[in-house]
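G., the chain you wanted modeled:
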Amino acid sequence: MNTPYAKKSEADSGRPPLALIAGPTASGKSALALALAERTGGIVINCDASQVYADLRVLSARPTAEEEARAPHRLFGYIDGAEACSAARWAADAQREIAAAHAAGRLPILVGGTGLYIRTLLDGIAPVPEIDPAIRAAVRALPVAQAHAALSREDPASARALAPADTTRVARALEVVRSTGRSIRDWRAHKEGGIGGQVALAPFLLLPPRDWLAARCDARFGQMLDEGAIEEVRALLARDLPPALPVMRAIGVPEIRDWLAGDSTREEMIRRACTATRRYAKRQYTWFAHQPPPDWPRCQDQLDNKIIKEIVIKLQ
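Predicted structure as tokens:
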């Protein structure tokens, strides 16, 4: 990252507080956030890209109704699955919820594992103009190999920084340079709208032992099946939504869909979903281990009630 989020300073004492609990899936973030909210009278604000969708309560491991009753929760399940939530949209919504918490004299507590959301909220976003629809359509119709070759000619620096098979990022970089005449890297060097400099940030990262995390991922998917994940996917399929939407690509949805269609066995469905979850957790783990500022506190132990209480005391 060019600008490492927000750095704490002596000036933070005059700024309103913002707690942040982040880390990979199944690391215990929700339990810690809820404990902190109960101890401080705070408000839990979601920053997980899957948990924004109303259709994914089970498969996104959203807090239960009982947990939500123990403290105010915001931005959980507030977007219909027929829409695709962008980081910019979420960040604008989060800013409003944070401001509302401050106005009420309560501690806003961000919790989630989507690094892009956190970075966008704190650092801001590049003010890239709207892309010409004709250019976007033409770029998105190109095979990724052709798009990357074109990007190598039109924006060599961006092409070198991207994997040739990264369809989404290659297309984005190419449409930006064609529509604006400037590299996406130039746009991203001047971000706008971040609140990192306006709050006293109290971050905490959960990076527990990897074997413990993997076991938690496997156990949690089994629990999801018991709690209605299959019915959740059936309801999604009944809506006949476009397959490219985030809700249709969420971990567990394609695997259960294929099993319901008779294209895999139940054992294969479980194995595929658990493997996808562990791989996702690994990517998140790597991101949170290396991208945030090195002075952000990290917990590398597996969470239990004793450790949760200790962390809550530190974050108050």
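DSSP finds 15 helices and eight strands in the chain.

Shout if anything looks off.
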